[in-house]
Amino acid sequence: MDSTSDASPTSPRRESVWLDWQWYIVLVVALLIRGGAGYLQYENFSQDPDSYRLLANNILRIHSFTLDDPAEPTAFRPPLYPLLLAVTSISRHVLPEEVLLLHIALGVVTAVLTFFWAIQMGLERWRSVAGLLVAIDPILLNQSTLVMTETLATCLAILTLVAVSSLANKHLSSDDARGSRDATISAVNIAGAIGLAIFCRPTFLVWATLLPIAVWFCCRGWKLRISSVLAYGLMLLFLLAPWVVRNMLVFESPVLGTTHGGHTLLWGNNESYYEYLRSGKTPVWDNTEFHQRFARRNPYLGTSASELARDKAAYREAIDTMKQNPDMAAYSVLVRFTMFWRLLPNALSQDESGKRTMVRYAIGAWYLAQFALVIAGLFAIGKNLRKPGWIAALMLLASFTLVHLFFWSNMRMRSPLVPILAVLACAGIELIWNRLTKR
C-alpha cells in the first residue's frame, strides 16, 4: 500500500467545507426534504413501536432506564437513543414535535457528513450528489418519521467513517514528531464514534472488532500503527465498560449489548417461520401466534432476572430449532440475505392498493439504479478499495450483512449502510461520466 490517504493524489484540497456553496445547498435541501417528510407523516411521531419514548419518559420522570414503574432496570433496548430523546426534550414529555426536530437535525447532519466523506474519498466533484442521495433515500426517509434508531444509527455510522478517513488523510508516520499525539487523538475519536454507535445499535459491535484493521493502515510505521490500535482499543473498552458493569450489577451477567438479541435470533429461526417459508401461502408471515406462544412459555415476571432469562431461553430455542432443521436454517439464511438487500418493500397484503404498489415499484426502480451504480463504482475504485476508508466501509457492509444472515432481517436493517452506497454510487457516476465525455 503506497499511500495511507483515502483521497486521490490528484484531488484538489479544500480548506473548509464552510466556504463551499454546495455544502449549503445540500444542507438546505436535506432540511426541506427531511422536514417535509416529517410533516407529512407527523402522526407517526406520536407512536412508540419499540418503547423508546417510554424509556425516555421514564428517564425524565423517575430517573431510571426502565420499562416499568416502579423501576426495574432493563437492557432490552440500547440506551443511547432514549437518552438522546430525553436530553433533547425541552418539555420533559418527549413530544412528537421534539422527536421530529431531533430527526430532522440528525438527517441533515448525516447528509452533510456524507458530503464531506465523499470529498475525503476523492469524489469531490460528486460530493453534493452523495449528500442528496442520502437526504432523499427511501429507507432513510421512511425511518426518519418513526420513533426508532435508524436515523441516529446512520448518522453515527458515517461519523465513524469520517473519523477513519480523517486519520488516514493526515499522512502520519513514525518519523513525524507530532505523529504519535495526532494519531492517538484521531484513534480516540474513531473509538468515540463507534462506541456511540454500539450504544445505539449493538450490531455495530462486530464492526468495532474489525475497525483496528482500518486503523492499522491509516498510519505509516509499526510504532505508530501499534499505538493507534492500542489507543482505539483502550478508549473503546473505557466507553463500553460502564454499560457492562451496570448490567453485571443488575443481571449478574456481562450483557455487552442488550437482552433483545435472543428474541431477534428466534424471530428468524422458529418452527412457525420455517413453516411459512415452506408453504409461502401469504406475502407476509403473521408472527402473532409465535410471539404469544413464546410469552406463554416464558412469561415476563416484571423483573430484570426474568428479562435475562427470556433472552437466554430465546437463544436456546433458536439454536435448537436450527439444529433440528439444518436444511431450513440454511435456506432461511438465503432468505434473510435477500430480505436485507431486496430492492423493493414487501407487499403487506394481497389486497394492496394500486397506489401503494406503484410506490413500492418506484422504490425498487430507485434501488435497482443505485445498486447498478454501486457495482460500477466498485469497479471504478478498483485497487483503491485497499485504502483505509474503503476498508472500513466494506467491513461495515460485510458485518451488517453477516449479522442479519442469522438474526431477523429486512430492508430497514441496512439503513446505516446507505451513506456508503451513496458514495459508491457517486464513484459509478464518475466512471460513466468520464466514459461519456471521452467519446
UniProtKB/TrEMBL annotation:
Compartment list: Cell membrane
Record keywords: Cell membrane, Glycosyltransferase, Membrane, Transferase, Transmembrane, Transmembrane helix
Transmembrane segments: 21-40, 99-119, 151-169, 190-217, 229-245, 364-382, 389-409, 415-433
Location (main, coarse): membrane
One of the record's GO cellular component terms: plasma membrane
Domain of life, per lineage: Bacteria
Membrane topology: Multi-pass membrane protein
A single GO BP: lipopolysaccharide biosynthetic process
Coiled-coil annotated residue ranges, if any: none
Single GO MF descriptor: pentosyltransferase activity
Keyword Secreted: no
InterPro entries according to UniProt: LipidA_mod_glycosyltrf_83
Protein name: Glycosyltransferase RgtA/B/C/D-like domain-containing protein
Species of origin: Bremerella volcania
Source lineage: Bacteria, Pseudomonadati, Planctomycetota, Planctomycetia, Pirellulales
